[in-house]
Amino acid sequence: MSQTWTTANIPDQRGRVAVVTGANTGLGFETAKALAERGASVVLAVRDVEKGGRAAARMAGDVTVQALDLTSLDSVRSAAAALRGRFDRLDLLINNAGVMYTPKLATRDGFEMQFGTNHLGHFALTGLLLDLMLPVPGSRVVTVSSTGHRIRAAIHFDDLQWQRSYSRVGAYGQSKLANLMFTYELQRRLAAHGTTAALAAHPGVSSTELARNTPAALRLPITWLAPLITQTPAMGALPTLRAATDPAALGGQYYGPGGRFEVTGHPRLVTSSAESYDVTTQQRLWAASEELTGVTFPVGAPSPAQPR
């Protein structure tokens, strides 16, 4: 595989419909912009529709805006219903939006903010839209994770909402580990259908608004090191774009920057933590996510004999 994959490698996307969450700024903006420039009909699924409109105005092509607040399951259901009313097919769902290192906060449904936004909101949205994708050959669900899935990361089934104690770094790590476990379990369920694939990506270290809640103890060192260890949002979006559009990409794959420590560079296949591949934990998380969101998927769990 080429180590210098760029937006020039994106195949023609005309006739394809793509939904990108959190697309009014940063990685999501660059992802949506690149897809629109290659001819896709792109929906910016964003919490602030005014900002979304301004972002759409800066993009060329067929770009529209859909209100979506991932911190509210009511909003997720309303957005899914609106999208189902507008489209009879969906080729790409890019689960990009996210929050990082927030203080202890809860979503409108009472979930810990990072787990609720980064994982549960996207889990519910995917489940509510997936039947628009299953009939579409080559359709893909791409979920954006982070190298943070390795840092103090575990799925705390005894306290998923961090009610007993709270670590903003640990909670972020849990949410990003959940993104990967969701992707891998979804791919196992999709494998029998042969049309839709689930992939994951991470941006390395990109200079976006996501880091605005970085703890004070880390902020100064990161500021000093930023010129050496960060890349632009346009570069950070490339792993997502490759996972979404590279004809050679396969379900269950994970893409990240190809440079040292996966911090910067052009996208390539990478691996995630050993824990992220644990099928038992993936299935347990899936069951918990269905229970918490009330959303079930139109694809069932594969038989134990089916390969992952």
Folded structure, characterized:
The protein is an alpha/beta fold and 308 residues long. The protein has a single domain, classed as NAD(P)-binding Rossmann-like Domain (Rossmann fold, 3-Layer(aba) Sandwich), CATH 3.40.50. It is built from nine helices and eight strands. An eight-stranded mixed sheet has the order 3-2-1-4-5-6-7-8, sandwiched between helices. Helix 4 links the parallel strand 4 and strand 5. The longest helix is centred in the middle third of the chain and has 23 residues. The radius of gyration is 18 Å and the shape is globular.
Strand tally is 8
Radius of gyration, Cα only, in angstroms?
A: 18 Å
CATH architecture: 3-Layer(aba) Sandwich
Pick out the low-confidence regions. Answer: 218-228
Sheet-strand content, in percent, reads 5-15%
- Number of separate helices: 9
Number of domains: 1
Order of strands, main sheet, comes to 3-2-1-4-5-6-7-8
Biggest pleated sheet: 8 strands, mixed
The secondary-structure element order is EHEHEHEHEHEHHHEEH
The overall pLDDT average reads 92
Protein name: Short-chain dehydrogenase
Family: Belongs to the short-chain dehydrogenases/reductases (SDR) family.
Keywords: Oxidoreductase
GO molecular function: oxidoreductase activity
List the helices and strands and how they pair.
Layout: E1 17-21, H1 26-37, E2 41-46, H2 49-57, E3 63-67, H3 73-86, E4 92-95, H4 113-129, E5 140-144, H5 168-190, E6 197-201, H6 216-229, H7 233-236, H8 238-245, E7 254-257, E8 267-269, H9 279-293
Parallel strand pairs: 1-2, 1-4, 2-3, 4-5, 5-6, 6-7
Antiparallel strand pairs: 7-8
Helix pairs in contact: 3-4, 4-5, 4-9, 5-9
GO molecular function: oxidoreductase activity
Keywords: Oxidoreductase
Protein name: Short-chain dehydrogenase
